[in-house]
Design brief:
The structure is a single chain. This protein has about 200 residues and is α+β, with helices and mostly antiparallel strands. The structure holds a DNA duplex (13 and 13 nucleotides).
Amino acid sequence: MELLSREFFARKPEVVARALLGKVVVRRLARGKRMAGRIVETEAYLGVNDPAAHASSGKTPRNQVLFGPPGHAYIYFTYGMHHCMNFSCQPEGFAGCVLLRALEPLDGLLQMAAARNFELSEPHTQRELKNLTSGPGRLCQALAIHRASDYGKDVVSPRSDLQVMDDGFQVKKVARTPRIGISQAMELPLRFYIAGNAFVSGNRS
DNA sequence: CAACCGATCACCT
DNA sequence: GGTGATCGGTTGC
């Protein structure tokens, strides 16, 4: 397992969104514990020219990390109850990010379930595992991601408690569709997921 | 400074 | 398939 590079994120969001599939998000906890999940579904959000992106109306206190250096966590709160996590892309000064839509849980499953306020049965059912981290709001709750404590964190720093790593996993086939849950630029195929993976959110093709 | 609304989810039928 | 919950950021008065 090695950290991704800053240059990995200094590319176009649609390139990074595709490249992040198969990579591993690591959340370091107290007392040496950790949670980890493989990225199986992403969406690209472009810069000021993407009407569906938070960067479209220019730099604000809420979205300023999108305009900063690549490889930092852009976290926002929505629908009055959910957090969503993105990683900033493109060189400093140019907005763009990738939204994490689903993870395949790898490590720290008990902690994830606790953070999601339920208990896993033994043996775990496929339904329970998918319920942990399948969906942008769910995965943030599972990893205990909060805007107040995690906004702007550097995910390629060796000292960060929120990191993205490469464990050598090879993605076989990637599928592309329009993005979910938006009302503008709906025709752009900027959602990416690992074809056939059981932890992808939603039911659409 | 008040009103509007959402890159969602859980639970209902 | 439908819908209510719930609140910070943004916009318009």
